[in-house]
Amino acid sequence: MAAPGRHVGRFIQRNGRLLVNNLEQTCSHRSKEAVLEALAATVSRDPTAYPYQFQDDSYLAPRTSLEFKLFSLSQESGRSAAKYFVNSNPKFFTKDFAQPHIPEGSGDDHKKRKWRVRRASDLLKVTWKENNNAERIFNLLPEKDTRCYSALIRGMVMHGAYAKAFSVYTDMLNNRLTADVHIFNALISAAPDVREKYNERWDVIAELLNQMRQQKVQPNLLTFNSVLKALRRCGALGRTQARQTLNEMKALGIAPSLATFNHLLAVFFKAGSVGKSNVDILQEVMSELAGASFTCQDPDDALFFSSAMRICLDHKDLHLSYKVQSLVEVGENWRLLGDSYQQSIYYGRFFNLLCMMEHIDVVLKWYRRLIPSLYYPNSQGLRDLLQALDTDSRLDLLPTIWKDIRTLGHDNKADLVEEVLNLMARETHSPEVQESFAACALDVKSVFEGDRWRPGLDWSNSSLSHISTLLLRANKTQQAWDMLQLFKAKNRVPTEGLLEDFLSACHSNGSPQRAVELVQLSAAFCLSATPRLATRALAEFELSEEQSVRLTEERSTLRHSCWSSRDTHSSPQGVNMSTPISAEEMEEIREGFQKVDLDGNGYISASELGNLFNEVRRPLPGYKIRELLQKLDRDNDSRISLEEFTAIFQDLKNDRMAQGFRKALNKKEGIVAIGGTSEISSEGTQHSISEQERFAFANYINSSLEKDPDCRHVLPINPSTEALFKALADGVVLCKLINLSVPDTIDERTINKKKLTAFTTQENLNLALNSASAIGCQVVNIGAQDLKEGKPHLVLGLLWQIIKIGLFADIELSRNEGMYTHTHTHTHTDSHVCFYSDQSHAFVFP
User: Fold this and answer.
1) Could you report the per-residue pLDDT of 425-472, keeping only the tens digit for each?
2) Which CATH architecture has domain 685-809?
3) How many CB atoms lie within 10 A of CB 705?
């Protein structure tokens, strides 16, 4: 058994020496960095690791985009300081410890880093000034060769002097000099700026290419990229010439770069278009580039990935976006994402698409992978994440996301903070989740309060209500009571629902004293719910005699002053039309009462009543004052108290409200007048709708879309009820109806059909309105919220336009002999193919 092992050992030892000798011979012809490069190629890039410049101190690594910019600026300052010490004390820096030697970078390295920290004055440096230093130096040269002309022409093109660049090129030809490839590349890129028409621009480009052939100048990759870049500004002509340019590149054996494909996407893809051809072009490009590793050959190479991801986002193509991301992860392709600004654009679009289309577990996987090592999300990116959590019912993760929001420095965005609070307070969850929500709400409260380092946010009524609700659900009654005190301190008014919930919490905790204080707080705000809260407190709590008397007095006083609803002033149809008096109106009443009550005894005489109404801008005739006095002065003491006058004011206000609603409830045969009172005009506003139109539109939709599987959740629509307006509220039926009238107007892949939320519904309605406008509908003063609320006159008006366009599209004279006879008999048929819609209205609905 030993002999075979010994032979094997000798064989390995002998071949090992041969292998080492071969490696030494091979490595002797390579650079000193070859070993490091080989080792680096054995491991893949860790996307969660911080960039190399931050790894020395990961605890101080930037967490926000602002910190990243500040670190970049401090890094440049550190380089300058290091150079100062080296230059001031060269004797201490004589030995080079780096193996292999690290050469000093060029002084232009920092200029290549576009940190996006620029001043407005920098924008003024890009223009070409007449007879500047460059031109003067050029004119002083005794002999001007091609290199001199090349430098001047390229500088003129770079700084916007396009016509002057062509003039200098003409002078060079007159001096019997031949241009180099750099001159032609610059002039080709400037061609769209010296001509206005598309065909003239292409003629200039073709002429320059012919001159290259005549002067025997070999084109390079940048030449063809310049041609494609110019074709981006040549309209439809650019698509035809772009294909010829690619064929010419293949014939010359020039491999395209990422900039080449970026220009192709720009030529064939138009923003806002929803056609499938745009995605097909990107599919072909990604199939061509799959698995390839690129190096930077053109400055525009860094724009390809962000442009490709924009197309994926516009068309909501998640599968294609994964292909683009896979290409980024191949080799060193991630270096071609561009500077930090371009990277944020690319990853922002990718993350937006993930939140919109992917499952929440996958979204969170990418979230932990990208943030914050590769991507610092803005407030919109975090709102997209909140939308994804809401869509997949994972609101229990909101406290974790809130911590990230604070870490990323977005806790100063009021709208984002309000969105987090709204999602937490919208529904009731399990006790564990509510406990975490309450802790998160207290942390949010500290953001509103601020500290000495940063100012707090402005309290809104919704933020106060949401935090109070979250604390109540977690049985943190004392902290919720402290929030109620903030309402008064911040001049905000709590909602009636919040007070009802607080009273229920007091009942659960057995706190009658807190319930009494709650009723008194509601009375201080002059809320209409105060009598109802007092009644609940008297019925549900075991109160002491003093507490019961106090609540009874509060209820009776409030009912007879600000919130009484008298039987004699009940509204039509039995509807209670009593409206509360606002705090501003109550203060106005007190001020006017004090002005008339000269002796300050708390009463005014009947003769002073007319003057009092004039003070509060409610003048009344004499007979009206006498009627009111006879009704309210029950003790016949010929004087009016403040409580009696407040009741008069309330009666007048309710009477005007009732008159407005009587107009809104007015009905005629076949026509319904809808509306309500207007805050601007006492007459109110009214809109008329036809019940026959609603009936006809509902039947039309039922018959036209009955086989559409995406509309089964609302079809069939009952034409006799208001179901039509509810069926259109999510936007799906509207989008389908637009495609029925004008086919292929909307790419159905862009319609959100499943798991509809408030965000996706808003997208559908916006898509429907934009598409309706594109096919010729008038959508002025119609918003997505109007359609969502189902405002009848707006919905029926939009439906009429969409259906009318679809019906008129089928009207042809060849199919309607009666219409042809109706027109001039001797006129050619083609001249009557198109009718105005108002002339043909009678042919649509009899």
Assistant:
1) 999 999 999 999 999 999 999 999 887 777 888 898 899 999 999 999
2) Orthogonal Bundle (1.10)
3) 20
